[in-house]
Specification:
Layout (H helix, E strand, L loop, with lengths): L3 E4 L9 H16 L3 E6 L9 H14 L5 E5 L4 H13 L3 E4 L3 H13 L28 E4 L6 E6 L3 E6 L7 E3 L7 H11 L4 E5 L6 H10 L6 E5 L2 E6 L5 E5 L9 H6 L4 H9 L13 H7 L10 E2 L2 H14 L2 H11 L1 H4 L4 H11 L6 H12 L6 H7 L5 H11 L6 H15 L3 H13 L7 H7 L2 H9 L3
Parallel strand pairs: 1-2, 2-3, 9-10, 11-13
Antiparallel strand pairs: 4-5, 5-8, 6-7, 11-12
Helix pairs in contact: 1-9, 5-6, 8-10, 11-13, 13-14, 16-17, 16-20, 17-19
Function: Catalyzes the attachment of glutamate to tRNA(Glu) in a two-step reaction: glutamate is first activated by ATP to form Glu-AMP and then transferred to the acceptor end of tRNA(Glu).
Pfam family, one: tRNA-synt_1c
Keywords: Aminoacyl-tRNA synthetase, ATP-binding, Cytoplasm, Ligase, Nucleotide-binding, Protein biosynthesis
């Protein structure tokens, strides 16, 4: 059997990290099993769906490298197929027309709730042997309802939640086509999964309640359902206007960002994939791993059963580890995509050397871009930092260093010797000299090795900034 998985987002809002995790696991499972990963756009909610949201899905998946093998398939383009299957179900007596109005259905539910019963359709229009149906109201277009089995239970072994059993008596007869003939979500999903030969459905646990209904439709159509794995929700911390903190399901309404925004904020695709992989799956204690390791290790047996909480600090830490491990020239090219002005017209080898020096201090590419700019553009030190470090006691040493740097060979070892000579001649300690030099040259007192930093700066820029101390 060839494993065939799918990701089937609805383009009714911008896809965020909680959504994209439901693409990551079926993608990884298909890759791990040498299978097929399918992208399906469930766009039947015409009023809320948008092309812009579709574009974010496609762009976000492409950026993260979650490439699909088939699709994207759009449900709105498959309407003739759904109606064909509906006609087959009519002919087999698997569906029936229901003329109960919305007002009648609401009244029925209110009555049931008042009696402390579960609100559900009562089968008024379901044909049964010996049953007399009400008179068809004139001018009313019916919905089509699926004849759900009576008695027994729907049972499946969920790869995350274990054995789940739902009594058929808990399920009413599902509407599978609206009065205008448009098919509904649960029906379309089943037809799609059958036509696309889906073997494993890996999705959020907000779909658990849909699963028994879908399984019954599969079996009514003579098909066995796929293997299901329902993933726990991704949570996020929400801070109310009064400062109260609470944890909610990750959503756009609570500030979740479109996936593509992480690219603009300088996150690496491999860093985000690594972080998302750990939000509901684990491989021992491994925290940082490559995409190739993830695919090699991934299986459905180690999916977590508990909801995971998104942690921006942890994401940044994981991203920083990937930046450290990324080739310097590649980092420069990645920067070109989001901050072209930082790298265009500049020597690629010099940019790579700067990257090699500072990348251990960078949690995103934007931080790397800020560091690179310090080597090319004027810096504005914090006056308080200048006052703290550039004192009258150290100014003679700064002048001496500037004088020596005018004529030394411009490379790390020679610059290091100049610094050591100034320390010997002036009698001050390294921090007393290094701090003011860092503040004046780079605008910050925290930098990598001073001689390495200066060697990557333009000599005249260094001299100008040191001499500005007066």
């Amino acid at each position: 059997m060839t494993v065939r998985t799918r990701f089937a987002p609805s383009p009714t809002g911008f896809i965020h990290l909680g959504n994209i995790r439901s693409a990551l696991y079926p993608w990884a499972f298909a890759r791990a099993e040498k299978g097929v990963f399918i992208l399906r756009i469930e766009d039947t909610d015409v009023e809320r769906s948008s092309q812009e949201a579709v574009d974010v899905i496609l762009e976000g998946m492409a950026w993260l490298g979650l490439t699909h093998d088939e699709g994207p398939f759009y449900q709105m383009q498959r309407m003739p197929r759904y109606k064909e299957v509906l006609e087959q179900m009519k002919a087999q007596g698997l569906v029936y027309p229901c003329y109960m109005s919305v007002a009648e259905l609401d009244a029925l539910r209110e009555k049931q709730m008042a009696a402390k019963q579960k609100p559900r359709y009562d089968g008024t229009w379901r044909p049964e042997p010996g049953k007399t149906l009400p008179s068809v109201p004139p001018g009313v277009q019916p919905v089509l309802r699926f004849r759900n089995p009576v008695g027994g239970a729907v049972v499946w072994e969920d790869k995350v939640k274990g054995r789940i059993e739902i009594s058929n008596d808990e399920l009413d007869d599902l509407v599978i086509a609206r009065p205008d003939g448009t098919p509904t979500y649960n029906f379309c999903v089943v037809v799609d999964d059958i036509d696309m030969d889906i073997t494993h459905v890996i999705r959020g646990d907000d779909h658990v309640n849909n699963t028994p209904r879908q399984i019954n439709i599969f079996r009514a159509l003579g098909k066995e359902p796929p293997v299901y794995a329902h993933l726990p929700t991704v949570l996020q911390e929400v801070i109310d206007p009064d400062g109260t903190k609470r944890v909610e399901k990750m959503s756009k309404r609570h500030g979740a960002k479109p996936v593509t925004q992480y690219r603009e904020e300088g996150f690496l695709a491999d860093g985000v994939v690594n972080y998302l992989a750990r939000l509901g799956w684990s491989h021992g204690d491994d925290e940082v791993f490559s995409r190739e390791q993830f695919i090699e290790w991934f299986n459905l047996d180690h999916l977590g059963k508990s909801a995971a909480q998104f942690d921006d600090t942890k994401l940044r830490w994981v991203n920083a580890q990937h930046i450290k491990q990324t080739d310097d020239a590649k980092l420069v090219e990645l920067l070109r995509a989001i901050r072209p002005g930082v790298v265009e017209g500049r020597d690629a080898e010099h940019l790579a050397r700067i990257s090699a020096l500072v990348k251990d201090r960078c949690e995103t590419l934007l931080v790397l871009a800020d560091w690179i700019e310090k080597f090319y553009h004027p810096v504005t030190p914090d006056p308080a930092e200048v006052a703290k470090h550039v004192t009258d006691a150290v100014r003679p040493a700064l002048g001496m260093l500037a004088k020596m740097l005018e004529t030394c060979e411009w490379e790390k070892a020679a610059i290091s010797e100049c610094i050591k000579e100034v320390l010997r001649a002036s009698g001050i300690k390294m921090p007393q000299l290094a701090m003011p030099v860092r503040v004046l040259v780079m605008g910050t007192s925290q930098t990598p090795s001073l001689d390495a930093v200066l060697s990557l700066c333009d000599r005249q820029v260094v001299l100008q900034r040191l001499n500005s101390a007066g």
